[in-house]
Design brief:
single chain; 214 residues; mainly alpha; two-stranded antiparallel ribbon; 2 strands; globular
Length: 214
Amino acid sequence: MDNRGLEKLDQWLLKYGNDDSILSASELDGFFAAIVSGPRQVAPAVWYSAIWADQPPQWPSDKDGERFMKLAVELMSEAAYMLSEEPDDYEAIFLADSNGKGEKLIVSEWCAGYLRGATVAGWLEEALPESVAAARALITLHGDESGSATLKAMSDAEYDASTALLEPAAVELYEYWQQNLQPVLPVRRDDAKVGRNDPCTCGSGKKYKQCCMR
């Protein structure tokens, strides 16, 4: 995905998000990396709702909702392709911040998104072999508030060395779960029935009768 697409995702996530939703393309990339890495498929209706913390936006038009979904699926597909087909070249979408000493990677948003995705996919708390558990722990260190004290105590060199291991950690987790696949995660359903003229639960932005009802 080019920078223009990432910038558009940033704009939409910030404009239509809330205090608990995903708010950047970096965080969304981490979210999707965990979703596609898990042991089971996650239905679009499930991950779409999780992006917005169960408060999906009311798009101004069907076209806007469709464009968001197209870019989101493109981002997810790129993560899946790189992790499966070109793991040695896998690159997460980290942020960069100039601190006066050159560019420093900011990985917290990507890692927080990854942890959210692993939670949605239902494998964040799964028992893992030691090396794979260490990969998950590294992402947790950078993505969860519990790791803030440890990160603050790191020197710049230690921090850089730690962040350099994040992408290999994501690849290791992906490869482990591909060898331990499980049944498809069922779609989470609300008690209320979806009406013919309600927004489709897949997040396309279309009415239900014009989309998945067909």
